[in-house]
Amino acid sequence: MAQPQLIDVGRKSVEATKIVARDPEVMNGALVFAGTRVPVEVLVEYLAAGDSLERFLEAIPTVSRERAVAYLKMTPGAVEEAAGLAGSAR
Questions:
Q1: What does pTM read for this prediction?
Q2: What is the CA radius of gyration of the chain?
Q3: How far is CA 75 from the centre of its chain?
Q4: What are the Cα distances from residue 41, in Å, to 3, 46, 81, 89?
Q5: Residue 78 in contact with residue 44, Cβ under 8 Å?
Q6: Cα-Cα-Cα-Cα dihedral of 19, 53, 41, 17, to 10°?
Q7: Do 80 and 90 meet the contact criterion of CB atoms below 8 Å apart?
Q8: Secondary structure string (H, E, C) spanning the chain
Q9: pLDDT per residue as tens digits for the range 15-40
Q10: Which domains does the chain have, with CATH numbers?
């Protein structure tokens, strides 16, 4: 059996399967933060719009900092893609 992917989020590691989930019965199958109905796309949209992670966490208290950080570590480039910055010079 394959070992679960672990994402280092500072003080502890989180199993990738505990970060996000997809279920056709929850938010029409959108990728959501595990244990919530919050699509991960909401975090990407916040960050792409220039908002901070802190602002997202204040607005969406059902998502833990550890999950949000772990998701961002799993998906490098997601915010740049959403903002149309992928491949651009910085």
A1: 0.72
A2: 14
A3: 8
A4: 27, 9, 12, 24
A5: yes
A6: 0
A7: no
A8: CCCCCEEECCCCEEEHHHCEECCCCCHHHCCEECCCCCEHHHHHHHHHCCCCHHHHHHHCCCCCHHHHHHHHHHCCCHHHHHCCCCCCCC
A9: 555 888 889 999 999 999 999 999 99
A10: 6-82 (1.10.10.10)
Cα distance between residue 73 and residue 29, in whole Å: 22
Residue listed under structure tokens 């915010």? 79
59's tokens? 């607005």
Q: Are 32 and 40 in contact (CB under 8 A)?
A: yes
